[in-house]
Structure formats: structure tokens, C-alpha cells
């Protein structure tokens, strides 16, 4: 690499460059002829570029680099066609000719079309292209010694043109006058036909000039057109507030100030438009200020498009934030469910066995109640994260809402007048009735809290059609819209912007979890619907829950039975969970139900037990575990033992990854919930 040592900036650049992407490979592997040539050109003061090899890979020195503009330094070590593409049809035959014939090509003021500064231009060069032999005697490349003569050539061209123009102008005064007249006519034509607004006023606010585009703009926003000689004061005399706005900006320009303003003008009865206006003083040939002129552009559409873009960007940021928060809360809920499972199971065991005296019974009952509240909190987190288990069926929303009237009235209290309005012909909606009831109750409680001194609460449901421009961003179609409207204190814009975020609450410490609206929002999204909120301070709030219409007939809403079934002992249960505390609690429950329990900490451990001879009658397995999932474990064992009963237990509350034909139980659970699931397995024969 010593041949690059005294090569200036380009030598240093070659030494530091990563040559792995260059057809030439690393400089240490170059032929001696190439190294010698490069060493020579780097030390030279002349503009030199070497095109080496069949791909004409470019190597050049410090003097040459400025001549290729923006192509430096990316051209270094790359095939010439990549960076001299615009002149390649001209340059390639010259380089190929020198390689083929080994004869030097030289020219003076040779024109080349280049795009070195981001635009096309013709440059001129004195050039000498010579063949350079490689170590084996073949032509290795073409050495180009050049000198740019563009400035001299263009200067001489301008000088010749100037001299010719001078001779032409002095030849006939009449022709010069005609050309000057034509030039003025052309300028006037351009001013008159341009889309931009151009006008000039004298010091008395009278129009000195106005082009058609500007007169058209006045016609659009005021319904009339000014003419040269008209007074601005008289033109807007019937609109004093508009005259004041116009004279405010014109007075600055007529005082000699040059400035640019973006202003909105126009009578609302006609149109209001936004213009970008550039004002400048208008002067006579002797420099005396005689008025002012402006050039303007209608930027209304551009600003509206920018506003729409900003709104779309904000919506995207909000969606990304909510998605990230959903993923976070979903993961937290999973871990929390694993923590709650042994707690709920142990408290359930204590209650069933009646451990302790009356005081201990009260403490255990309080702890069990707190655990249930924690379970509900996790469900709300999962609702926000859109990962709760839903049993979407055709639901008669009208009947459901009507039957909740008494419950809501008792919840809100006597100070609040509750009205329920649902039409009889309301179509069914695809929904989970239990979750919809919880959502309506949550919204009603929020409405109650927003009316501390009483008010009116109206709960209604209607079938509504959504078009392309609905603010909920729902797909066009028919939806059932459940509306919960109150006459409470309302929300300002900042509160409204954060209303559906989890843990955001205006109720104060200890008066709410901040998960009510976020849960309803997540539920609506999970069901393929949406949540919209309208609110203003002092004017109340209306929350609308949109649900997709079902084309099937709604059935009766059955209450979830509290099963007291206990499965008959059927032998050995293989219990698989990577959480020891969860495994311990579940094993205790299974033992009480009559099973001989064999525990395993992973799917791989469970398979090993089976290979060693274990023949379980029941598999109870966690779904998500390190390594093989519980679902995959269940399917693998079912292939070997089709009669094996399988129950998948999951801390996550969605069905992703769980085969539909496997029974499923969500953590945390009590002994009777486990028993009901196992009884269902026994009844189904699986």
C-alpha cells in the first residue's frame, strides 16, 4: 500500500476505502502496472483519471475530483458507466477505441454533456487518452489527462455572441426598437396569462395594474372585479372589516416595506381563500417611490392538503402508540394471570375446606374478593389489548339494552334520569353479550360520575349506515350503534385526546382504574367495530359503540351456569406448566378431584415421561412455554393416544396458536371452573 502514501486526499481515501464492492479488489492485490500508474497519477498536478479493466473502473487524483462534481467520491473504484451514464454513449467508443487500437486520442475543447451538479450542462475539455499496458503486455486501461476549458469556451462564445449582437443592434435602430417592443409585449403577455396574481397600487390606493388572474380572484371572493384606476377604498366600501384588513397590509408596502404574508381574504357569502403574497415598493426610474405591487399565489388547497397529511400522520402515531401499549398490557396481563393462578387456587382451597375460625374466614373472603378484583382488572387490560376471549354470536342488542335499564338505574342513583330507547326492528349484531353488558355498564358509570349533581342519561341503539368518510374509519356498511349520552361536565380537547388510553382517568386517586373507556375501545375493535366520542366542556358527552350487523338470527342470551359438576376419577393426569407455583396450585386441585397427578416443567419433560412408560388419561398443559408449546404437545400425544383427554390452560386470553378442537381454560381459575372444564371433556368423550 506504499504506492498510495503520497497521493494526497485521494490516496488517503483509497487507503481507507472498503474495496470489497469494487471489481478491482483490494489495492494490495493490484498488478504492478496498475500500482505504478496510480502512484504516478496521484502525485501529478494535472487533472488525470484512469479507466482500468474491461469495466473501465475509475481511479483519479485530487486535481480531477472537482471536475466531476457530485459524482465524487462515489465514482472512485466503480465502473464508469455508473457515474458517467449521461455521456456514456459518447465516452465509451473513445475509451474502447484506445483499448482496441492502442492509439492515443487527443482533442481540444472537446464537448461532453454532463450532469455533475444535479442538472445537465455541456462542458468542454482538452483531452488526451492513452493506453496503459498491464504486467502481461495487454492493455490494462486508458489514462486520461484532461483540462477543463468550459469557462474559456463559454466566455469566448459569449464574447462572440456579444460582439455579434452589438453589430446587429448597431446595424439598425429600427430592428432594435422592434425587438424591444416585442420583448415588452412578451412580458406583458406572460404577466397577463400567468396563474399568479399580480397587481400594483399607487400611493392613493388606486390600481395602477392588475392581471386577469388577480381580477378573477377578486371576482371569486367578492363577486366583482377591480379595474385600473379604481380605488381600493371604494371597491371595499361596503365591507369595512375587509377594507381594514386589506389596507393594513398595503399600507406597509406603500410605506416602502418589502415582505411576504400568508393571509386569508374573501367574503364568506362567496368564498374565503388563503394567499401567499409578496409585497414590494414600486419606484420610478429616478428611484422615487410611486406605489407598491404584489405577486400572489392561492395556497388554500396546499394548506388543506398539508393539514390532512398532518392529521393522517398524527392518526398513524396514535395507532402505533396504542398498538405498542396493547402489546405491553397484553404481556403484563399474561404474567399477572400466572401470578394470580396460585393465589386464586389457594384461597379457593381455604374457603372450600373452611380453614380457620370466623376471623380467618373473613380475611380469606376479603383476599378472595381482592383476587377477583385483580382478575377483573386483568380482563380489562386484555380488553384494551384486544386479547380477551370473545364468544361472538348474533345478539339482539335492542333486547339486551332494554333489559339493562333497571340495572343501570339502580347503579346511577335517583338524581340521574335514565332513558332507554331501542326500536323493535333493530337488526342483530355480532358480539359477545356478556362483554357488551359490561361495556354499557362501564359507560353508564362514567356518565354517572360526570354528573355529580344529577342529570340525564340516555342509552339508545340504532341501525346506522357508514359511508366512506365516517370519522370512525369503519369500513362502509351497516352497523348497530349503541349510544350512551349524558348531560354532564364534558371533556376538553386534551382530555378527549387521551380518553381511551389505559390508566388515564380524571376521577382522582382511588376512584377509578382508568381502564373503562380503553376496555370498551379494545372490545369494539376486536369485534370489528369502533368507538367514537363527542364531548365539549359543559355540554355533556356522547359515546357510541359501533358493532357489525349479523345476518343470522339472534338467539336467547343465556346466563353462564355456575357448574357444580365434579368429574369422576379416571386415573392419571399429566400436568405440564413451566411456572412451579401454578403447577403446585393446579396439582392440588386435580388431586382433590381424584386424579393421580404427575407433574412436568416443560413439554419436552412431559414427552420424556411418556417415553419412559407413563400412560396418562388426562393432559392439562400450559399453552405458551419455552420450547414446544402446550398445543403442540397435546397434538403430538393425541396422535399416539387418541383417547387422551386434553385441556389447554393459557395465561394469555386469546386463541392464537391453539387448535380449535382442543378444550381451553383461562388463568386464573378456581377449582369449580377446572372441574367444569374437565366435566365438559368427559361429556364430549375427549
TrEMBL record:
<dbReference type="InterPro" id="IPR036097">
    <property type="entry name" value="HisK_dim/P_sf"/>
</dbReference>
<dbReference type="InterPro" id="IPR035965">
    <property type="entry name" value="PAS-like_dom_sf"/>
</dbReference>
<feature type="modified residue" description="4-aspartylphosphate">
    <location>
        <position position="622"/>
    </location>
</feature>
<dbReference type="InterPro" id="IPR001789">
    <property type="entry name" value="Sig_transdc_resp-reg_receiver"/>
</dbReference>
<dbReference type="InterPro" id="IPR013656">
    <property type="entry name" value="PAS_4"/>
</dbReference>
<dbReference type="InterPro" id="IPR003594">
    <property type="entry name" value="HATPase_dom"/>
</dbReference>
<dbReference type="Pfam" id="PF00512">
    <property type="entry name" value="HisKA"/>
</dbReference>
<dbReference type="InterPro" id="IPR036890">
    <property type="entry name" value="HATPase_C_sf"/>
</dbReference>
<keyword id="KW-0597">Phosphoprotein</keyword>
<dbReference type="InterPro" id="IPR011006">
    <property type="entry name" value="CheY-like_superfamily"/>
</dbReference>
<dbReference type="Pfam" id="PF00072">
    <property type="entry name" value="Response_reg"/>
</dbReference>
<dbReference type="Pfam" id="PF08448">
    <property type="entry name" value="PAS_4"/>
</dbReference>
<dbReference type="Pfam" id="PF02518">
    <property type="entry name" value="HATPase_c"/>
</dbReference>
<protein>
    <recommendedName>
        <fullName>histidine kinase</fullName>
        <ecNumber>2.7.13.3</ecNumber>
    </recommendedName>
</protein>
<dbReference type="InterPro" id="IPR005467">
    <property type="entry name" value="His_kinase_dom"/>
</dbReference>
<dbReference type="InterPro" id="IPR000700">
    <property type="entry name" value="PAS-assoc_C"/>
</dbReference>
<dbReference type="InterPro" id="IPR004358">
    <property type="entry name" value="Sig_transdc_His_kin-like_C"/>
</dbReference>
<feature type="domain" description="PAC">
    <location>
        <begin position="108"/>
        <end position="161"/>
    </location>
</feature>
<feature type="domain" description="Response regulatory">
    <location>
        <begin position="572"/>
        <end position="682"/>
    </location>
</feature>
<feature type="domain" description="Histidine kinase">
    <location>
        <begin position="331"/>
        <end position="551"/>
    </location>
</feature>
<dbReference type="InterPro" id="IPR003661">
    <property type="entry name" value="HisK_dim/P_dom"/>
</dbReference>
